[in-house]
Structure to design on (535 residues):
C-alpha cells in the first residue's frame, strides 16, 4: 500500500441540493428533479425524497406514489455547470493535485499537504467549510479519506450525509466485505449480475476465487481489475491519466419530449445532434473517422423486423397515453469507419443519415437518438484534404465557428435547423466532456 | 397550495420558476471586487434583496451572463445580467 492519501469529495444530492440552496422554500422538503417541466423521469432526488425510497431514474408517477408530497422541479443545467466550475476553482485553491471525477465528485490528493495540515480529517473539515462558503449553507458533502481512490470513494458513498470517514488498514477489510458490488464505481449491471451468479456480492469475496476461475468467467482484463478492487487498489478507470492527449470520442444522445413521428423530424434531430458533436470536436481541434448512430422508438405489434440490427424487445410494452394501444419497443443502430477524417457537420450527417439511417429497415417513430464520432485525432496529425470544394466548405465552417465562438452556438445555422425548439448542449452528471467545458 | 401572487400561474400550477425576461434596474455595492445586488426596480416597484441564494455564471460563446438568485420577502427572483450589453432583466420568478 502506498503512502499517498486521497480525499474523495461527493456533494450530497447535487442537483436537488443546489435547487434547494437557490430556493429556500424547498429546503427540508422532498424534491424530485426532472429534466424539464412535464417530463416523466426523476433524474435526481433530494435527501428528503430519498428517505421515501425515491431514486434517480424512477418514474415521476412512481415517485408520487412513494412520496405524495414530492415537488417536481425542472433541472437547471447552467447552475450545475457553474457550481462545478466554482468547486474546481476551490479545489485547485486547496490542493495542487485534483481530479474532477464527475459533475459533483472530485478527488483531492492530500499527500503533498501533510506538512501543512495536522491531519487529513482536519483538511476534510476545511473542505466542507469552504464548500458551504462557496455554494451556500444548504450544500453538504461527504468526504472519504483513504490511501487509494477506490477506498476513499467507497467509504464516502456508503457513509451518512455530511460526514467524514477515514479508511485505515484496520477497517479496510470490513469496508470491502460489507459494501455491495453495486456501489463499486465502474462495475456495471451486467458484471454485477455475473458476479452474483458466482455468489459474489462483496469485493472482499474475490480474494477467495482462484486466478483461473476469475479468468474463466471474466477474461484476462476484468480478472485483474476485480482482484485490484478486492485488495482496495485502484482499478484502471481510477488511475488519473494526466497525459491523456485528447478526447477519444464525442457523442450526444437525447430522449425527446414526444415521439418524432415523421422522417423530417427524425432528420432534423439527427442533424441537430451532428452539429453539436461536430462543433465540440472542431473546438478541440480534432477530427474523427468512426461514426455511430442508434435510434429507439416504438413500433406497432404487426411490424416485421427482417434486419438483425433491428431488435424487437417483446418484454417492453409502451402504452400510448391517449388510446391505450400497445406498441413494442423498436431499436436500430449502426456504425461505420470512414476512410477520411470527418471535419464538417454535413459530412457527418451524410454518412449517418444518407448512408445509414435512411436505409434502416423500418421507419418507426423515434423517442431516443444517439450519434457519436470516435477514432479522434488532432487535425494537425491527419492528412490534408486537397479537394478545392472541400476547402470552400471548410472556410464556411470556420466562419460559422468564429460566429458561434463570439455569439453562441447556433447563432448561425443550417436551414435544416429552422425549427424554434433547437437541441442545445447540456451538461451530464458523468461529465465525460469536461475537457470541452474546462479548456 | 397557495395562489401565485403575480398571477402567472393558477392555483393548480405546481411550484416552479416562471419565465418573465422583463427589464429592470439594479443597484448594489462592490465588495472585494464582486458586485452584490441590493435592490432592484421592476414595474415601478422597488424590491430590497434580503439574501443572494445563488450566483450562476452562464457562457455561450463569448456572450457571458450572470444570474443572481435573489430572495425578497420569501420569494426568489432570478436577475439576469448580460455582461456584454450590460442590461438587467428579471428573468424568472419562483411561484408556488
Amino acid at each position: 500500500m502506498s503512502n499517498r492519501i486521497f480525499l474523495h469529495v461527493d456533494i450530497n444530492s447535487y442537483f436537488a441540493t443546489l435547487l434547494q440552496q437557490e430556493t429556500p422554500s424547498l429546503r427540508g422538503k422532498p424534491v424530485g428533479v426532472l429534466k424539464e417541466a412535464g417530463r416523466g423521469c426523476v433524474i435526481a432526488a433530494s435527501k428528503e425524497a430519498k428517505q421515501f425510497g425515491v431514486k434517480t431514474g424512477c418514474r415521476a408517477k412512481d415517485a408520487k406514489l412513494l412520496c405524495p408530497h414530492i415537488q417536481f422541479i425542472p433541472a437547471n443545467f447552467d447552475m450545475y455547470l457553474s457550481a462545478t466550475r466554482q468547486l474546481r476553482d476551490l479545489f485547485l485553491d486547496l490542493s495542487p493535485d485534483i481530479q474532477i471525477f464527475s459533475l459533483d465528485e472530485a478527488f483531492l490528493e492530500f499527500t503533498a499537504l501533510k506538512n501543512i495540515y495536522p491531519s487529513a480529517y482536519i483538511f476534510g473539515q476545511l473542505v466542507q467549510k469552504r464548500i458551504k462558503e462557496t455554494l451556500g449553507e444548504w450544500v453538504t458533502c461527504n468526504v472519504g479519506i483513504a490511501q487509494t481512490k477506490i477506498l476513499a470513494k467507497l467509504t464516502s458513498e456508503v457513509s451518512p450525509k455530511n460526514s467524514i470517514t477515514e479508511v485505515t488498514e484496520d477497517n479496510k477489510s470490513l469496508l470491502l466485505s460489507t459494501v455491495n458490488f453495486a456501489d463499486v464505481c465502474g462495475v456495471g449491471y451486467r458484471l454485477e449480475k455475473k458476479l452474483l451468479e458466482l455468489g459474489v456480492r462483496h469485493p472482499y469475496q474475490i480474494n477467495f476465487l482462484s486466478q483461473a476461475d476469475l479468468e474463466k468467467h471474466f477474461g484476462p482484463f476484468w480478472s485483474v481489475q476485480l482482484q485490484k478492487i478486492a485488495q482496495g487498489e485502484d482499478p484502471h478507470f481510477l488511475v488519473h491519466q494526466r497525459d491523456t492527449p485528447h478526447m477519444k470520442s464525442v457523442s450526444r444522445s437525447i430522449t425527446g419530449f414526444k415521439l418524432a413521428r415523421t422522417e423530417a423530424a427524425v432528420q432534423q434531430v439527427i442533424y441537430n445532434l451532428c452539429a453539436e458533436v461536430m462543433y465540440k470536436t472542431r473546438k478541440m481541434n480534432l477530427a474523427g473517422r468512426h461514426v455511430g448512430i442508434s435510434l429507439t422508438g416504438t413500433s406497432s405489434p404487426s411490424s416485421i423486423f427482417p434486419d438483425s440490427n433491428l431488435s424487437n424487445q417483446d418484454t417492453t410494452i409502451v402504452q400510448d397515453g391517449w388510446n391505450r394501444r400497445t406498441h413494442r419497443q423498436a431499436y436500430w443502430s449502426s456504425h461505420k469507419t470512414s476512410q477520411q477524417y470527418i471535419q464538417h457537420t454535413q459530412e457527418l450527417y451524410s454518412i449517418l443519415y444518407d448512408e445509414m439511417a435512411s436505409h434502416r429497415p423500418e421507419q418507426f417513430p423515434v423517442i431516443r437518438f444517439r450519434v457519436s464520432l470516435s477514432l479522434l485525432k488532432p487535425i494537425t496529425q491527419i492528412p490534408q484534404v486537397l479537394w478545392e470544394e472541400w476547402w470552400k466548405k471548410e472556410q464556411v465552417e470556420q466562419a460559422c465557428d468564429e460566429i458561434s465562438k463570439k455569439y453562441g452556438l447556433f447563432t448561425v445555422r443550417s436551414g435544416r435547423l429552422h425549427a424554434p425548439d433547437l437541441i442545445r448542449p447540456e451538461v451530464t452528471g458523468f461529465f465525460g466532456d469536461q475537457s470541452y467545458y474546462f479548456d | 397550495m397557495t395562489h401565485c401572487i403575480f398571477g402567472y400561474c393558477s392555483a393548480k400550477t405546481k411550484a416552479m420558476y416562471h419565465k418573465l425576461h422583463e427589464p429592470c434596474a439594479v443597484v448594489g455595492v462592490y465588495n472585494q471586487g464582486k458586485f452584490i445586488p441590493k435592490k432592484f426596480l421592476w414595474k415601478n416597484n422597488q424590491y430590497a434583496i434580503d439574501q443572494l441564494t445563488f450566483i450562476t455564471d452562464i457562457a455561450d460563446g463569448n456572450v457571458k451572463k450572470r444570474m443572481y438568485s435573489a430572495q425578497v420577502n420569501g420569494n426568489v427572483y432570478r436577475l439576469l445580467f448580460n455582461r456584454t450589453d450590460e442590461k438587467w432583466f428579471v428573468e424568472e420568478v419562483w411561484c408556488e
Summary: Residues 94 and 126 of chain A are 9 Å apart (CA to CA). Residues 14-76 of chain A form a domain with the MutS, DNA mismatch repair protein, domain I fold (CATH 3.40.1170.60). DSSP finds 13 helices and 14 strands in chain A. Chain A touches chain B through 27 residues (CB under 8 Å).
